[in-house]
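$ run holo --ligand "zinc ion" --emit tokens
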Amino acid sequence: MVEELLEQETADPISNNNISLSSLSKKEKIANRVKERNSWTTFKKPNELTFIGSVLPKYLKYYYTKHPTEKDLNQSFPVKLYDDGKIDLDALRSPPSSQIQATWIGHSTTLVQMGGLTMLTDPVFSQRCSMSQMSGPKRFRPPPFSLKQLIIKERIAIDIVLISHNHFDHLDYYSVKKIAKYMLGYSNNINPTSANNSENNTKNNDKSNDKRGVKFIVPLGLRAWFKRKVPKSLMGNNSVVELDWHEKTIHTTSLNSKTNNIFEHGNSNGLNKMDNDIRNFDCEHSSSFDVTVTAIPMQHWSNRYGWDRDKTLWCGFSVVASARVYSTPKSLDEKDIGDSDNFDGKSTDKIRGDHSTNRSKTELKFLFPGDTGWFDGLYKIGEQYGPFDLAALPIGVYTPEHFMKPMHMSPDDAVRMMTAIQAKKAVPIHWGTFCLAAESIVEPKKRLKKALETADIDQSIFPAWFIGDTITSG
Ligand SMILES: [Zn+2]
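-- output --
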């Protein structure tokens, strides 16, 4: 905590002197996406004067006069805490292979387990979503567990972190640094009982082959932030992959029953269950999962320091886990898309194109849109990338509507979005944690219930959950 308070993020202007030819083309790509979004009739640029004149006063009035007290929230919206033994740790340790499993950590942060991979979406574990931990919007509900409890104590490794954009309630410097640090010291071979802290792990396991890295997947332009902010000493096997809309990266996991049942990127605690489940699907000698992450368009914007509006891209992510079976692995010589490095200029695992000829019937699809307002392109996303088995859809921060609607979803918009993107099931995010609008942090829950009733959709298809809950795609 002391470290967090002292080590505040500093706002560095992006220096034009450092722009190389390739970053110029990146800049152009981002500018084109901005133009594309600006052409959508549902989008309206957020105006600073409107914000100061009519949004901020409403927000502050709500924040200081009407916000529920902690006592109210403990009753109406309790958090399931690790420290109270309320987390379904068995589920986290042994996620089902035939479903997507999501655990809500608060706001847009979810722990998603699918296809043998464990992912975090927009991880924010800090007390405030702000440039500094001294001021800015504070957290009204705690996270159910800390990153240390999850990664170090429970030995649940994070394989992928999805970052949708650079707003402070989605990109948290402290959480990114902690994930990088804990995963840097994470080894597949360590005995869980001796895993007391990451420093010990690092000392005891210095063979790089044993180490697992985390892959941060970010929209175009955001890798520069990682280069500036995350110390190089914390990167090691960790990597950052930057994607434009419709670009993808494939993360391959493998399980070979002939050898040691090594599951390269999955949760080692869930090996036996996963192994058996895979054998139930297929009877070949070796199996593996391809988890394809594709950045997809969303109606939002970016801004971190005030002078960098829309200088980096924003996106949602489609995540598809495909269980593959093959007798003879085919060569992986398809085109590379996207851009990846581990900070020293060396390419890490690049995109490996489409393995559709090898693909088995087993496929799971998840959507994380990050932030978005309603736009008609959502239908196209449903056609192109759906249907989704599970989607984590934003339902909060919609008041006042005239300002928020182009960038955020109300529960009514989210229910409409669920249909448009062809999601079979959804879980609600972007509410219940930070007070960022002139509405109660728990109001979206009531409005979601009504919106589902109006749309004649069963509540179990889009269940309002509590922080700390674990839900499967079913
Ligand atoms: Zn945002």
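-- notes --
The chain has one domain: 41-472.
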